[in-house]
TrEMBL record:
Protein's name in the database: 2,3-diaminopropionate biosynthesis protein SbnB
Origin species: Streptomyces nigrescens
One Pfam family this sequence matches: OCD_Mu_crystall
Range of residues in the leader sequence: none
NCBIfam families: dehyd_SbnB_fam
Gene3D superfamilies named among the record's database cross-references: NAD(P)-binding Rossmann-like Domain (3.40.50.720), ornithine cyclodeaminase, domain 1 (3.30.1780.10)
Any one annotated GO CC term: cytoplasm
Gene Ontology biological process: siderophore biosynthetic process
One of the record's GO molecular function terms: oxidoreductase activity, acting on the CH-NH2 group of donors, NAD or NADP as acceptor
InterPro entries associated with the record: NAD(P)-bd_dom_sf, ODC_Mu_crystall, ODC_N, SbnB
Length: 311
């Protein structure tokens, strides 16, 4: 999965993709909820177009249900015909977590021994990120978990202890979490609440995109997944652009780091902000579809198309 995501980033960077803006369906009476459409085409070895339709309803967690649900439609590049419909909440979580792990290994090349990782947010995405960090070989001495809901934070800490056999504790003190060597944000925050600057050597995985005040972003080296996409929709980097009046604070893209073209300064904190690209969903979705075909778990729908010939 890590290789699939890395390859998709490189293909996108080289121009072998089409990734339009995401489209947001918002609800005036539910300002914290949204449904997002992410259309894309990925060339390279994938050669598929498609669209992910993902709903984010944070209120679901109060009922014990996951915040996000999604479907992914894949279209044949030659004919344009849709060829598959996949459950995509897991695909979305996997590609998000894998991108965080790819960034973590690339931006902390000396490894994680002797360091602590703090995770702000104790939901499904946070759990997947911890799992993928472990798969990627990110082995800190300990984890620290912070969440406004202590039960969620405690559950994530227990998950890390159980699956990684690694010390993990919950803290109600946000400042304690912000002092870790690596800080992961995986929340549903709609606006910034972190105004404390990070220190040189700290790595911040800004997965939820809106937790950091623009001044915090401007005080760091910034790696994005895609500059045009990330500087939209009132993300923390977008607010930093508005505040500074320029994009000079952007150090480069993750693909640039992977290709050896971008090297963040060791004298500044490093923030990775991924807007989340539809091409990643296509790459992971194509892999899932291929595996399902191999093991025979796909479900074919006969006569799905009303007409298959013009005459």
């Amino acid at each position: 999965m890590l290789g699939i995501v890395s390859d998709a980033y490189r293909a996108h960077e080289s121009g072998d993709s089409v990734n339009p803006d995401s489209y947001f369906l918002r609800f005036p009476e539910k300002p914290d909820s949204r449904i997002i459409a992410l259309p894309a085409f990925l060339g390279a070895d994938v050669q598929l177009a498609g669209i992910k339709w993902i709903a984010s309803f944070p209120g679901n967690t109060r009922r014990g249900a996951p915040r996000a649900s999604a479907v992914l439609l894949l279209n044949d590049y030659e004919t344009g015909y849709p060829i598959a419909c996949l459950e995509a909440a897991n695909i979305s979580a996997a590609r998000t977590a894998a991108s965080a792990a790819v960034a973590a290994t690339a931006l902390r090349p000396d490894g994680f021994a002797g360091t602590r990782i703090a995770v702000v947010g104790g939901g499904v995405i946070a759990r997947n990120i911890c799992d993928y960090l472990n798969v990627a070989g990110c082995a800190p001495d300990a984890y620290l978990v912070h969440d406004l809901d202590e039960a969620s934070g405690q559950a994530l800490a227990e998950h890390v202890r159980t699956t990684q056999n690694r010390p993990a504790t919950f803290t109600a003190d946000l400042d304690a979490a912000l002092g870790a060597d690596t800080v992961v944000f995986a929340t549903t925050a709609l606006e910034p609440y972190v105004s404390t600057p990070f220190k040189p050597g700290q790595l911040v995985l800004n997965i939820s995109l809106r937790d950091l005040a623009p001044e915090v972003v401007l005080g760091a080296d910034n790696i994005l997944d895609d500059v045009e996409h990330c500087l939209k929709a009132q993300t923390s980097p977008h607010l930093a652009e508005q505040l500074s009046g320029s994009r000079e604070f952007v150090t480069g893209t993750l693909a640039g780091v992977l290709n050896g073209e971008v090297t963040p300064s060791p004298d500044r904190p490093v923030i990775f902000s991924p807007f989340g690209l539809g091409v990643l969903d296509l790459a992971v979705g194509a892999f899932v579809l291929g595996e399902a075909r191999k093991d025979g778990s796909t479900i074919e729908v006969p006569n799905f198309f009303g007409e298959t010939r013009r005459w």
